[in-house]
Q: What sequence folds into this?
């Protein structure tokens, strides 16, 4: 693999790893927000009506972990060329 292709893969992998890690921290902090009993008025179509809030948090955590794992996997699979 030439150095330009490696640089592109490393850039994408690093970006995914950083973005996924920060999103994971944010989604885990979101779990600390207390659940309020009263719901604020939301505009129609802003949120899916049938999906509970905890399922949206699980989806966000899963997506962020997936991005972080994908980024770190790219960095492990394509290490720094030694030539």
A:
């Amino acid at each position: 693999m030439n150095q330009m292709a490696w640089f592109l893969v490393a850039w994408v992998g690093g970006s995914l790893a950083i973005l996924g890690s920060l999103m994971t921290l944010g989604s885990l902090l979101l779990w600390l927000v207390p659940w309020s009993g009263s719901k604020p008025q939301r505009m129609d179509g802003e949120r899916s009506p049938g999906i509970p809030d905890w399922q949206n948090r699980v989806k966000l955590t899963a997506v962020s972990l997936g991005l972080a794992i994908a980024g770190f996997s790219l960095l492990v699979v394509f290490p720094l060329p030694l030539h």
About this structure: The mean pLDDT is 85.
